[in-house]
Design goal:
Structural class of chain B: mainly beta
Shape of chain A: globular
Distance between the termini of chain A: 39 Å
Order of helices and strands of chain B: EEEEEEEEEE
Largest sheet of chain A: 7 strands, mixed
Oligomer: heterodimer
Radius of gyration of chain A: 14 Å
Distance between the termini of chain B: 30 Å
Strand content of chain A: over 45%
Number of strands of chain B: 10
Largest interface: A-B, 24 and 27 residues
Order of helices and strands of chain A: EEEEEEEEEEE
Number of helices of chain B: 0
Radius of gyration of chain B: 13 Å
Shape of chain B: globular
Number of helices of chain A: 0
Strand content of chain B: over 45%
Chain lengths: ~120, ~110
């Protein structure tokens, strides 16, 4: 059973870079055809897709965050990572990592999620 | 603003049937997936594709699409179904992913 676990600092100062890692267990991040995404949720609000990386390394980002986001993968550690630069209080949220099978272009879905990690942006 | 629109809140009597809807132009091309989220927990996939349920999801959950509207139907709603429900799909360009704003389901 694949499991995902987010990790990283719970507090980031404004204007700095938020860095999170998602560790995948129960399967190899480099095998199969999957997309690995980051999704966030401010307290009391809805889900927002941040971006994704394909097993092969290509990336897609939410246009509203694209200028500040970098997602990368480290297959040797079975991890993928998120960097979000120039953070403000509006970036305070629970951050989730999730997996999506690349089985069909027309039905995209996240079949496994991490438990989420709360990141607060505050001085 | 989201390209997928959901009613903010819906209520249903225990044991009755409820439909949660999601509207968006991209749904004319791409299927929606649906996620259940209970307080303090990560979202859980309940419906994907035309009408597929992951292992462990009760068969009282079903999905359908008509035109630009995707629907999640819960037949014989149980108290434990009280949760927030989010739809998700590709955006109109097909290159990016979007979530609906979520629907809070209350079971009376």
């Amino acid at each position: 059973q694949v499991q995902l676990q987010e990790s990283g600092p719970g507090l980031v100062k404004p204007s700095q870079t938020l860095s999170l890692t998602c560790t995948v267990s129960g399967g190899s991040i480099g095998s199969g055809s999957y997309y690995w995404s980051w999704i966030r949720q401010p307290a009391g609000k809805g889900l927002e897709w941040i971006g994704r990386i394909y097993t092969g390394g290509s990336t897609n980002y939410n246009p509203s965050l694209k200028s500040r986001v970098t997602i990368s993968v480290d297959t040797s550690k079975n991890q993928f990572s998120l960097k979000l630069s120039s953070v403000t209080a509006a970036d305070t949220a629970v951050y989730y990592c999730a997996r999506a099978p690349a089985s069909s272009y027309f039905h995209y879905y996240f079949d496994h999620w991490g438990l989420g990690t709360l990141v607060a942006v505050s001085s | 603003s989201s390209e997928l629109t959901q009613d903010p809140a819906v209520s249903v009597a225990l044991g009755q049937t409820v439909r949660v809807t999601c509207q968006g132009d991209s749904l004319r091309t791409y299927y929606a997936s649906w996620y259940q989220q209970k307080p303090g927990q990560a979202p859980v996939l309940v419906i994907y594709g035309k009408n597929n349920r992951p292992s462990g999801i009760p068969d009282r959950f079903s999905g359908s699409t008509s035109g630009n509207t995707a629907s999640l139907t819960i037949t014989g709603t149980q108290a434990e179904d009280e949760a927030d429900y989010y739809c998700h799909s590709r955006d109109s360009s097909g290159d990016h992913l979007v979530f609906g704003g979520g629907t809070k389901l209350t079971v009376l």
